[in-house]
Amino acid sequence: MKFHTLNELEQKTNPETLDKARKLYEQESLTQKLRLLRGKYGFKQDDLNGFTQTAVSKLERRKDIKVSTLIEYLDGLGLGLEIVALPKDGNTEREVLLRM
Q1: In whole angstroms, what is the distance from residue 39 CA to residue 83 CA?
Q2: Residue 35: what pLDDT?
Q3: How many other C-beta atoms are found inside a 10 Å radius of the C-beta of residue 51?
Q4: Can you list the domains of the chain with their CATH numbers?
Q5: Which residues of the chain are under the pLDDT cut of 70?
Q6: Where does residue 43 rank: exposed (0-12), middle (13-18), buried (19+ CB within 10 A)?
Q7: Which is nearest to 43 in space by CA: 82, 69, 75, 65?
């Protein structure tokens, strides 16, 4: 059986399908990262101020999180949030849209 490299598979995949897969991965990885951050800073689900254990559990499984909710969640961990706009053309100039 021949195995293909990731680059070979990406070249064979429809660009729209690849873009959807990347977006889905980013959404899934966000929820994983939130759980990891909470654990890294030593918080249990019921330790976050302003959130019940059930609310934290639901938040960490959501595919779509409001920015305001994300700010509150991170604030409960003692963290802030920065949202940066990046040009898709490869330009390295970044525009900070929000820093909380």
Answers
A1: 23
A2: 93
A3: 18
A4: 6-99 (1.10.260)
A5: none
A6: middle
A7: 75
